[in-house]
Design brief:
Blueprint: E1 24-30, E2 53-57, E3 60-65, E4 68-73, E5 76-78, H1 84-91, H2 93-100, E6 104-110, H3 116-120, H4 133-144, E7 178-188, E8 191-194, E9 209-212, E10 218-221, E11 226-228, H5 231-247, H6 252-258, E12 260-272, H7 277-282, E13 297-308, H8 322-347, H9 360-364, E14 374-381, H10 388-406
Parallel strand pairs: 1-5, 1-14, 6-13, 6-14
Antiparallel strand pairs: 2-3, 3-4, 7-8, 7-11, 7-12, 9-10, 12-13
The structure holds adenosine-5'-diphosphate (ADP) and magnesium ion (MG).
């Protein structure tokens, strides 16, 4: 088994360092309390603004539930004092794994306003200290690949609106040891929409479909794939797609909180074939490498998905009518099937069925969840007591995503 895959030792204890490298890692991030001049502050009655969560340690969280204080243990718990660089420090190994050839998914979960987009970095970039996961991962990625800083189209371009003609690499680079393609899709109401599409053809876009090739690789058709050669190009694509997500709606806020946004990178690398025993040990399992490579070289193909999930809040009864109800049910189905798939993967019953086909989201992520893939979930919560029931839901969802792997399987007798 690879070093990064899940341990299946009897009893499933997670005592050693090696064992903590499980295939699904779940972190909680507690956002700072709303301040009096933050939007939404006035909506919360004073007596409900006090915090209902306490970070007990870097891996445990206490929640004041109506049944009393409950303690939850995660791979990591970030308090409101942990800033973007602290979260990234924990996640940076994901980019090393991606460059090694693993498929990786990074997921942000939680109720609207809890900090998913801020954490993932799909919100507008701002200054670099507030950069979320995607810009930091992009930076680390090009550093790993040894790409020279291009600077040609500088980061100043990010503040102005980005136009379609600006995205994608202006030049076809050949004979590189690697190539990167980016896609950016939104899943809304179980249909996929390309976010890297010309503003003018927004209402007339091709149908995006998900299919699976013979080797189990998930392919998307009808989607723009941008060749990306630098950090700046990646940021332009991200910023452009995020702005399309914002403007492409009649009920903007309601919609973006109900849709999943998936920014994905596909990295193809030409690497020297491992020769010595040590090189072979440090390399990927051979079945993960593409066949038909040149003599002396292997082709390593990997994916990195950044997923800004739909808001996890439950629909209010009054809204459960007509179109709204359909949306709500559909989004909940996506989050519900994601939770189910992660649980199924964690319980790791070899050969057992995994319900990837239950939703577009899990289908899209199929080759990047489970198997040799590595998944990180950051579940975002708001500390105020006002949001206690959603916070409890989020923490329990996150716990389910993680719990089964750390508990021994119950033997049927
Ligand atoms: P979501 O995507 O979950 O709906 P956002 O990421 O848009 O939530 O966060 C809502 C607001 O709170 C944004 O203005 C964001 O900048 C701010 N925010 C969220 N988390 C943090 C944090 N950890 N530190 C500072 N500001 C935050
Ligand atoms: Mg958001």
């Amino acid at each position: 088994a690879s070093r990064l895959s899940m341990s299946s030792r009897p009893g499933g204890s997670r005592a050693s360092d090696e064992d903590s490298k499980t295939a699904v890692k779940v972190a909680i991030r507690v956002r700072p309390a709303l301040q009096p001049n933050d939007p939404g502050y006035d909506l919360i009655p004073q007596r409900f603004q006090k915090s209902a969560v306490q970070v007990m340690s870097p891996t445990s969280l206490a929640v004041d539930s109506p049944q009393g204080k409950k303690i939850f243990v995660f791979d990591r718990v970030f308090s409101e004092k942990v800033e973007q660089d602290g979260v990234w420090e924990y996640l940076q190994e994901s980019v090393s794994a991606f460059v090694q050839g693993y498929n990786v998914s990074l997921l942000a979960y939680g109720q609207s306003g809890a900090g998913k987009s801020y954490t993932m970095g799909t919100a507008s970039p701002g200054d670099s200290s507030s950069h979320g996961i995607i810009p930091r991962a992009a930076h680390a990625l090009f550093e790993h690949l040894g790409a020279p800083p291009s600077g040609a189209r500088g980061s100043s371009g990010l503040r102005a609106p980005v136009r379609y003609s600006q995205i994608g690499s202006p030049k076809q680079v050949v004979n590189k040891a690697w190539s990167i393609k980016a896609t950016y899709v939104e899943i809304y109401n179980e249909s996929l929409r390309d976010l890297l599409i010309n503003e003018t053809s927004m209402h007339d876009r091709p149908q995006v479909n998900i299919r699976e090739d013979k080797s189990g690789r998930i392919l998307l058709t009808g989607l723009h794939e941008l060749e990306i050669n630098s950090y700046e190009e990646l940021m332009l694509a991200l910023t452009f797609g995020s702005s399309i997500r914002q403007t492409d709606a009649t009920a903007i806020n309601a919609k973006s909180s109900r849709s999943h946004a998936v920014f994905s990178l596909n990295l193809v690398q030409k690497k020297p074939r491992p020769q010595t025993d040590k090189e072979k040990r440090n390399s990927l399992p051979l079945d993960m490498m593409a066949q038909g490579s040149e003599a002396g070289y292997i082709t390593v193909d990997s994916k990195l998905h950044f997923v800004d999930l739909a808001g996890s809040e439950r629909l209010k009864n009054t809204m459960a009518q007509g179109e709204r109800a359909k949306e709500g049910i559909s989004i909940n189905a996506g989050l519900a099937s994601l939770g189910k798939v992660i649980s199924q993967l964690s319980s790791r019953h070899p050969g057992s069925h995994v319900s990837y086909r239950d939703s577009k989201l899990t289908r899209l992520l199929q080759d990047s969840l489970g198997g040799n893939a590595i998944t990180y979930m950051v579940a975002c919560v708001t500390p105020a007591e006002f949001h206690l029931s959603e916070t409890l839901n989020t923490v329990q969802y996150a716990q389910r995503a993680r719990a089964i792997q750390s508990k021994p399987r119950i033997q049927q007798v």
